[in-house]
Amino acid sequence: MGVMDTELQAHIDQWRGYVQRHRAISVADVDEMEDHLREQISTLQTAGLSGDEAFLVAVKRMGRMDAISREFALEHSERLWKQLVLVPEEPGSGTGNRELMVVLALAVVAALTVKAGFTRLSDSALGLNLSLLVLPFLAAYFAWKRQVSASVAAVLLVPFVLTALVVNLYPFEPEGATEIIAAIHAPILLWLVVGLAYAGGDWRSGRRRMDFIRFTGEWFVYLTLLALGGGVLIGLTVGAFGTLDFDIEPVIEDWVLPFGAAGAVIVAAWLVEAKQNVVENIAPVLTRVFTPLTIVMLFALLAALATTRSMTSIDRDLLILMDLILVLVLGLLLYTISARDPLTPPGLFDRLQLVLVVTALVVDAMMLAAMLTRIAEFGSTPNKVVALGLNVVLLVNLVWSARLGLGFVRGRRTFAALERWQTDYLPVYGVWAAAVIVAVPPSFDFR
Amino acid sequence: MRIDKDLVAASATPLVLGILAEGESYGYAILEQVNQLSRGRMQWTDGMLYPLLHRLERLGHVSSTWRVSEGGRRRKHYLITESGRAALAERQAQWSVVAEALDQVWRGATGPVAKGWA
């Protein structure tokens, strides 16, 4: 009997999961139907059916879920426009409110820290430390949310402290290339540390890493929306005060901007957390639009590159831009992977994706050749070394992605292999960023 | 005997309201009662009852409350409202008109019409 019960429980849990995937059916509705299902099962069991049989008959009598879901959708059309639940659904549960309090407190503290940084630090020190002023609070939010153990919290603290020591103790030449390089790579490294907090210490799990990739995309979308909204609000405020002959621009610059920016980093993360089960993710939708467009752009670039005669004549700025374009390609790849059901067979979009990766590879190889030529001709600089290194890091990823993608499209490999490769590769970026921060400045005398 | 699904759909609202008019009930019990009343000849897709109940609730014909069953599970109970009773009375009037018309035409078919054909 006990064994039967756990088996039946597992069946019912599976059924629940299946029903819950229908967007028009809310959790309360599923509760209501589960109660019905259980009554039906126990009636059938009393009539002499086994647990399995009773379950199957009861599910059959429940009817086809897509038809029922359609009925629910007609009745509750608002559910297809899922709302962001900012007030706790069950009055008295209170957890939503407490989380909001924590988020707001962290946002305010982060904003005050950034503000202090703006008044106390020189411009170049501010550049180096900016991510250190905000991201620890974001990591703290996730550490709180995931209730990490003390040892994990300590581990999370280490990279922040080490980064702070390195960037502040290195004798950078002010406004030098190595200082700018360190300032660019510190946020990348620290973002991955935020990822460790996001995973709640479970950083060996590929699932959690993929979740973090999803989170990053959504967070970026939310941050952009907040920035746009904030921009409009500031513009209107400045305009309105301007007509009253008040000049509030200094207030905006000194207080509203640093507060708004630092707060938005935390609030955007909270928004993603609050709605992750509620709305379809937007980042993967954007990849559908931008994957074909990026392929067109890459082809146009290849054509343009083919008309330039010598590799050394390729502009330095173009090399940096190309690196950014490759990062974009990788982003598109990551977000498509993050949204794809690993079990569906390869389709047109997977082929398109492969075209994108292969085109990017060709571009990457050409850039690599151009960089090597430039280094041979003019000697190495910090910028060139870092750009070259980033190129190699991206090249390795793209080559292997192309190989796995081809295998998948041909039906020789599973999609999961491609997914695993991307999540396994994540730490490489962190190691690369850390290596750049630590090793590049001293190798070039902090110039 | 299988009853046509359009007919089942058309009679669902008055049946549910009629059952609730006798007292508060919940989904599974309502279906059980439909089964008994029709002696098992009216087969409903169980899941379809719930969107219907929610529709009646939105229209204000029923109200609902969550209670706890003997088994300790959360269970949503439905109760007919005043507007539900009014709606039921109207449906009853409509159905009697339909039933009366059908009754007459069918009785007529075996009577005078049949004679005329003979």
Automatic annotation (TrEMBL), chain B:
SUPFAM superfamilies attached to this UniProt entry: Winged helix' DNA-binding domain (SSF46785)
InterPro entries found in the cross-reference section: Metal_resp_DNA-bind_regulator, Tscrpt_reg_PadR_N, WH-like_DNA-bd_sf, WH_DNA-bd_sf
Annotated ranges, domain Transcription regulator PadR N-terminal: 16-90
A Pfam entry, by short name: PadR
Top-level taxon in the UniProt lineage: Bacteria
PANTHER family per the UniProt record, alphabetical: PADR-FAMILY TRANSCRIPTIONAL REGULATOR, TRANSCRIPTIONAL REGULATOR RV3488
Protein name per the record: PadR family transcriptional regulator
Organism for this UniProt entry: Nocardia fluminea
